[in-house]
Amino acid sequence: MKTNRILFACLLAIAMAFATSCSDDTNVTTVEPTLYTRLGGIDVISKVTDKFLTNVVADDMISSRFEAAVGNHYRLQMLRNNLIDQICAGTGGPCQYKGQTMLEAHTGMKITATEFSAMMADLVAALDYYEVAEREKNDLLAILTPMESDIVDK
Amino acid sequence: MKKIKILSLSLVVVFAGLVVYANLRPLSIAEKLKTVDLASYRLEGLMTPAERSALEQKISALPGVTACSVNKEGRVASVLFRRKEIDEAQLASHLSNQGQWQVAQKTLQASGGCPVHGMTASFYAFISVLDLRN
Known about the structure:
heterodimer; A: mainly alpha; 9 helices; 73% helix; B: alpha+beta; 43% helix; elongated
């Protein structure tokens, strides 16, 4: 009888330990990587940014908006660095955007909704060129598209 | 005479301060990337969409080129490149694809446009010149 009790107690302890370990497993939370990581980090962001810049300069509709900035070595570095930092910081990467706010930067430029759409199409083309996955592409566009209200008709 | 000496000394101190700032300021991840230049070209001659795509791929794959785009009409090509590795004339030569297309470099506007201008850009240019890490 005593042996049976000891055996029962041991089985109960093993069952509880098993149940506890099982419940622990269900509580494990997986941390979702940031969009920055999912995009491929600074390497992919800089490649997409460079492709975006060549796209807009080759785009007859909006090239005149960018020519002066990209034609000057130092202005080009500033524009490129700002774009990379802005995307990197906006997607949760280890960067800090040091440029002006979109509203400050675009006030007085009278950028039309058509021009903004053309610019976004050039960005999408750059993302497609580097085969950025649909989910990451949409997440990035969801971050950038709301900037339209600070850029268009200012 | 004494005023000139003080003024000269002040200018030297300010300049030395700027050199120190330029070389010790923390660089962002983007600033650590190699600098690039952009050249834009007008292309003449018939170009199919397949040829356009192939030309983009070919130029993008050149050493020193970070990106290349040819517009849908096949009339304009823009290239981002590292000047230490390749220059505009070499790019034009590659773009012509052994004479298949006539290539002429575009002169880009000198002012206006995109909001990277004014004192910020001038100061950045000055600091970049003083930065010996570039």
